[in-house]
Amino acid sequence: MDWTSIRVRSGAMPGRRGPRTGGERTRERAPGFGHVKARALELSFLATLLACQTPSVPLNVVNEVDLDRYVGRWYEIASFPQRFQRGCVATTANYTLLDDGRIRVENECRDGAFDGNLRRAEGVAWVTDPRSSQAKLKVQFFWPFRGDYWIIELDPEYRYAVVGHPSRNYLWILARTPTMDPADYETLLARIEAHGYDLERLNQTPQPPAP
């Protein structure tokens, strides 16, 4: 999640420039933080979120989110590269609903290769307005820094989701499996573009092949 988790043309429609794959930009990827450097990286991430200016056109979120269905394990399919995710592959996010209504966030990735060192960070997230659709959340890894986590697309069966930020400088495509159906992915690209995002910035996240 924007939290605390999301190259060679791949899967592109004719006439559309597709997101770059791992071959071109392996070192700039997905949510996950080094064990030793995690706190400094999280600080950089959240401070950057706080500094972002929200554009004049509002970013729309989905009408309803059932958090009981949303929690669980997600795989990052693609994201906008961020400094705090540099070097990450095989990125995942695991969300657990807590008794007080908040969500425990556990982001993991491998450093540089599928057999690289595990990088991990834990945080907490919460819905900003419980009376709303529950699609707008805040995430915090340590006090007092927090960032926006907005769910802007969500499959009716909760097979995939898109997480954004009102600045449109952050974007993650998440799925319940390490890969997505190409048709679903192309549909999401069109919808993401309609939200005002620049698809040229989107990089696919390397995930290990199925055993």
User: How would the global form be characterised?
Assistant: globular
Taking pLDDT < 50 over at least 5 consecutive residues as the criterion, the unreliable ranges are: 1-18, 21-37, 47-54
Kindly identify the CATH topology.
Lipocalin
Series of H and E elements: HHHEEEEEEEEHE
Q: How much is the radius of gyration in Å?
A: 16 Å
CATH architecture label: Beta Barrel
What fraction, in percent, of the residue positions are helical? 10-25%
Short account of what is shown:
The chain has helices spanning 22-25, 38-51, 67-70, 182-194; strands at 72-79, 88-97, 103-111, 118-127, 136-142, 145-154, 160-164, 171-175, 203-204. It is an alpha+beta fold and 211 residues long.
Give structural notes:
By secondary structure, the chain is of the alpha+beta class. The protein has one domain (22-204): Calycin beta-barrel core domain (Lipocalin). The protein has four helices and nine strands. It has helices at residues 22-25, 38-51, 67-70, 182-194, and strands spanning 72-79, 88-97, 103-111, 118-127, 136-142, 145-154, 160-164, 171-175, 203-204. The chain has an eight-stranded antiparallel β-barrel. It starts with 21 loop residues before the first helix and ends in a 7-residue tail after the last strand.
Outline the fold blueprint.
Blueprint: H1 22-25, H2 38-51, H3 67-70, E1 72-79, E2 88-97, E3 103-111, E4 118-127, E5 136-142, E6 145-154, E7 160-164, E8 171-175, H4 182-194, E9 203-204
Antiparallel strand pairs: 1-2, 1-8, 1-9, 2-3, 3-4, 4-5, 5-6, 6-7, 7-8
